[in-house]
Every structure is written in C-alpha cells, then in structure tokens.
Amino acid sequence: MSELILKQLPAIEAVAATQWNALIGDDHPFLRHEFLHALEASGAASRSTGWVPDHLTLWRGESLVGVMPHYRKFHSYGEYVFDWSWADAWERAGGCYYPKGLTAIPFSPVPGPRLALAADVDPLAARDLLAGAWEEGGLSSWHLLFAADEEVDAWLEARPELLVRHGVQFQWRDRGYGDFEGYLAAMTSKRRKTIRRERRLVSEQGLTLHRLSGEQIGERELEHFFRCYEITYLERGRHGYLTLDFFRRLRRSMPEALLLIQVRLDGQPVAAALCLQGSRTLYGRYWGSEVLADCLHFEACYYQGIEHCLANGLTCFDPGTQGEHKLTRGFAPRRLRSLHHLADPGLRAAVARFCDEERRHVEAYCRAADEALPFKE
Fold this sequence. Notes:
Layout: E1 5-9, H1 17-21, H2 33-41, E2 51-53, E3 55-60, E4 63-68, E5 71-73, H3 84-92, E6 100-103, E7 116-117, H4 123-135, E8 141-144, H5 149-158, E9 163-173, H6 180-185, H7 189-204, E10 207-213, H8 219-234, H9 244-253, E11 258-265, E12 268-277, E13 281-289, H10 296-312, E14 316-318, E15 332-342, H11 345-371
Parallel strand pairs: 6-8, 13-14
Antiparallel strand pairs: 1-3, 2-5, 3-4, 4-7, 5-6, 8-15, 9-14, 9-15, 10-11, 11-12, 12-13
Helix pairs in contact: 2-9, 4-5
C-alpha cells in the first residue's frame, strides 16, 4: 500500500466536491464541500476576513483518503470557544499569538466530525502526519473546536499532551415521543401548561408559522430571511458574518439541507429562522425578526424544530449555542470538549491551570442544569 501524503490546500475548490464528499457522512452538512465552498466563494472565510483556508488533506497517489478543514486565523472572532484572554496574556508577555491554526467550521458552533478518513487509513498514522502541519508550520497553536466525542478521544490517544477544554451546549433528543403532544406528556404539568400558553400567545397575536424545505425556498423567501438575519446583528451595532451571496450559494448547491421556518402576519413574512438538516439531526442556526412578539423566538426556533424532527424521523435537534432558557423547554445539557496545542511551554502551563479550573465549573453547571430539566422523574 502506497505511503500517505499530506497536502495543504489554499482553497476548498482545489479538490473536487465528489472526492471530498465521498468521505463525509450523510448527517453533517457543515462539513460538506458545498458549505465550505460557499463560505470561501462568498468571501466570508478569506484572507480579508482573517480566515485563511489551509485545508489538510491526505492522499495515496491520486486518491483522496483524508480531509480536515483547517484555517490560519489572525484573530479569534467567529469561533465560539473564546481564547482572547490567552492571546492577550501571550502578547503582553512579548509573544505573537497570531496566526494560529484552527480546525473548526467558520461561524458554526456545531458539534460533529472534523476529520474524515477512508476506512483503510490507519487513524494514528494519519493524525501523526496531520500534526506536523501545526507543529512545524510556524503557528503559535492549534485548536480543534466542537469535534465529536470519539474524535476528541482519538486525538488524545495520538497526542496525549493536547489540552482539553470543557464546555456545554443544549440539545433535544427524541425519546420515542411520537408527536409534540407525546413530547409534552413526558413533562411536568407546570411545564406543559407553560409551553401550551407560549404557543397560544403566538397564535393570538395573528402570527402563523410555515416550514419550507429545499426547492420551496425561493429567492423572495431567502431575501426576506437575510433581511431578518441582518436585523439580529444590526441590533448589536454590526453586520452578520455571512452574506446574502453565501445563503444563495447554499440554496443552489445543497437545497435539500435547508429548512426555512417563516413567520407571517396578515399573509406577509415578518420573521424567519433558517436551519440545516442531515439524515438524523436538525441544526438551528440563523434567526431574525422585523417585529416584537411575545414568545415568537421560542416558537420559531425551538417548538417548530421539534415538530419538524418528530414529523420527519430526525432524532436530534441542535438549536445553537447558549441559553439556559432552552433547559425548561426540554433541551438537555451536552458536555463538549475542545483540544488545544500550545507551542510555548509557559503559555501551555498557564492555560492548563485555567482549563482545569473551568472544567470544575462546567461540571457543577451541568449537574445543576440536569436538575432543571422539565421532565417527570
């Protein structure tokens, strides 16, 4: 069997979509060639935005046998695992933290695989080869964010010196509920009444919800969604990371992965949430509204997604980062781990102490979060 060769690609278009996607499972739209290409072609992930593509690929001759998205980063925006304090401490000490290496999906804090290998590739050999890209590439550090648990374990086997940082998100999982009423039946009486009241309030305000998939999402619907998406960011005094061109590219190249939840008032769209979906999981990502309405965010971003999962056989709903308010609506805490290689021993020791202290806080938080779930014992 021929030797594995590592190639670093300056753009995702340097490899054919069919080759890349042949290694990707069917439940991970964010790792697909089309998604990563839309980020680069629209300018969202580019040198001008501080996300320099440097994708790591493994080859046997002309056969692509391993892929891992990788970027040289010149800041820490758009990552959702924050290391600003590490960078600040190192630069005040006279070091240079950027550029750093990052394996993640830009602007997308979505748990899932980050490295995809052909079945006959030795995982340890592959990781040893990949590690050379940041250990010998003049980077201060390398960071693996939102990787699947089994992938984190595999990296720790290959590189036990990697630092582990703990975090938490909230996910909904189907426990055989059947439909939304079955889901509510698993909850305490108080929470059932609250959720029914929230849904009723949305209806009483004259708002209707409509789920559009794939080819049902036309240009007008997409443009309205983007206007709402931008409103969410403009309220914070800036534009969104992503452009209308990015979303148009997704609609052209992977329409089957899109679910648009559109909110209408008197027949006119006034709010929207755009989700991506795989074969088992719904990923709630982008939201915005032109109106202020009681409980609308809960309905559009949570309850509609749960209903869609139950109606279409999806067993997991990842609604995005943050928010204890997800707990009382049945989204359970999920522990996440990120991995970090820091070249300087002094910085590494300081960050290791920080990560250990943070881990204890996360463990306590997760215990409290489990107790706040609304389900019957």
